[in-house]
Amino acid sequence: MELKILHFYPDLMSLYGSYANVSILKRTLEKMGNTVTVERVELGGDADLPHADFVYMGAGTESAQLVALEDLRRYTDAVGAALAHGVVVLATGNAMELFGSSITSPDGAAHAGLGLFPFRTTVSDTARIQGDCLAVGAATGQTAVGFVNKASQTTEVAHPLFHMEHGPGNAADTAEDGAWEGSFYGTHLIGPLLMKNPHVNAYFTELLCRRAGLPYQAQDCPHEQRAYEVTLRALQERFRQQ
């Protein structure tokens, strides 16, 4: 069976090695004997959302985010329908914010988001929030490593995806990051998330197999696992000393 991945705006929303999230997921699924097609969705292009199995968008600059938002609005109904049918959507970095109610720019201008979820984002032009993170996943129950670099505060998230053991959350007054609603997964963690965290990659791999009615078999990934363990120990030690 062929699995289809839609990669939205791979050139525009491509900071922090975002493309590797798609690469590692595709490679893992193919190692299991599946055929995987990756379709790039460019600005002004077409997206075959009804036949997608996985939709991904990565992080971009604040200006790129608004460009992506303007184009993505034409897919609002299609994305909503895809989510209703269980299509898995992962948005990392500030891509997550596009699916909420609104994004307010530093000049006070409010830009309507897709409105699929109630959370709201406010972007600052004076304060960036950045740092290494340790985050416990609500979906996996395991600790993920990552990095946050954003100028935004996101509020009114009903179901966060991560609890931050260390590092910034959605907003200054919360230790929760991201949003998890049905088959939508959003997080500010960058790095890229799936490459740096083999257990998160395994979660999505299994999720896609189960949804498509395909057999799932855990894959060995010794190099990625070793890199994850080294990074995890280093961050744990650093945070202990702070």
What does this entry look like structurally?
The chain has 242 residues and is of the alpha/beta class. Helix content is 30%, strand content 28%. The protein is built from six helices and 14 strands. It has helices spanning 19-31, 62-72, 76-84, 193-196, 198-212, 222-241, and strands at 2-8, 35-41, 54-57, 88-92, 102-104, 110-112, 120-123, 129-137, 143-150, 152-155, 162-166, 176-177, 179-181, 184-187. A six-stranded mixed sheet has the order 2-1-3-4-14-13, covered by helices on one side. It has a four-stranded mixed sheet with strand order 6-5-7-10, with no helix packed on it. Helix 1 packs across helix 5 (198-212). It is globular and about 50 Å long. The N and C termini lie far apart (50 Å).
What's the short story on this structure?
By secondary structure, the protein is of the alpha/beta class. The chain contains six helices and 14 strands. It has a six-stranded mixed beta sheet, covered by helices on one side.
